[in-house]
Write a structure and sequence with these properties.
Mean pLDDT: 76
CATH topology of the domain at 112-201: Translation Initiation Factor Eif1
Oligomer: single chain
Order of helices and strands: HHEEEEHEEHEE
Strand content: 15-25%
Strand order of the largest sheet: 5-6-4-3-7-8
Main location: cytoplasm
Radius of gyration: 37 Å
Distance between the termini: 118 Å
Subcellular location: Cytoplasm
CATH architecture of the domain at 112-201: 2-Layer Sandwich
Region (Disordered): 62-101
CATH superfamily of the domain at 112-201: SUI1-like domain
Largest sheet: 6 strands, mixed
Subunit structure: Interacts with the 40S ribosomal subunit.
Pfam family, one: SUI1
């Protein structure tokens, strides 16, 4: 009498439910990979190799991170000390604003801009911008300017939506002296005139 053949044992994937050798054709092979490495490494030797390589890379990354950030192993800069390159690993890198084309935007210094505008070919207005950057209250400044030059002065929003002081008449001849005497926090070197579309230093 012939012996009964033993039934073939099929290993089914616990993730997708397919036989393990068919996982790669299933919809969730990526999800199956950890289970296959654990339970059927002989079916997918490449997966095992891949996993080992990934593990080695991870260990190398961890060692590198420890070498840079750990203050105890001498690999990185100790706390309170700067490394040989002169930068302290504890301090954050300085943020640099880059303009289109790779140009670096320098941090702008506060400036007072004075511009004389002639309207209707007769009416002249002297525009003062930037006093607020020095902590000067514009409403107070407009009152003082109006009183000093016996003219109308008001705080208005300019073309760029920033507030400025419009003073009626041409007072550009001695406004610099008045500004530096009234508001000592504004240096003469920070005051500029706009003449023919160019910025000219008052000092």
């Amino acid at each position: 009498m012939a012996e009964k053949p033993e039934p073939t044992r099929v290993l089914y994937c616990q993730v997708c439910g397919l036989p393990a050798e068919y996982c790669e054709f299933g919809p969730d092979f990526e999800k199956c990979k950890p289970w296959l490495i654990q339970n059927a490494p002989n079916l997918y030797p490449d997966l095992l190799k891949e996993a080992k390589e990934r593990q080695v890379e991870k260990v190398a990354e961890n060692l590198q991170a420890v070498g840079i950030s750990s203050p105890g192993d001498g690999g990185g800069a100790r706390e309170g000390q700067s490394d040989p390159s002169g930068s302290n690993s504890a301090s954050k890198p300085e943020e640099i604003k880059r303009l289109p084309g790779g140009k670096i935007k320098k941090k702008e210094k506060p400036e007072v801009i004075i511009e004389k505008i002639v309207r209707n070919k007769r009416k002249c207005v002297t525009v003062v911008k930037g006093l607020d950057l020095f902590g000067v209250k514009l409403s107070d400044a407009s009152k003082k300017l109006g009183k000093k030059f016996a003219t109308g002065a008001s705080v208005v929003k300019g073309p760029t939506e920033k507030e400025q002081i419009d003073v009626q008449g041409d007072i550009s001849y001695d406004i610099v002296e008045f500004i530096t005497e009234t508001w000592t926090e504004v240096p003469e070197s920070a005051i500029f005139f706009i003449e023919d579309g160019r910025k000219v230093a008052a000092a």
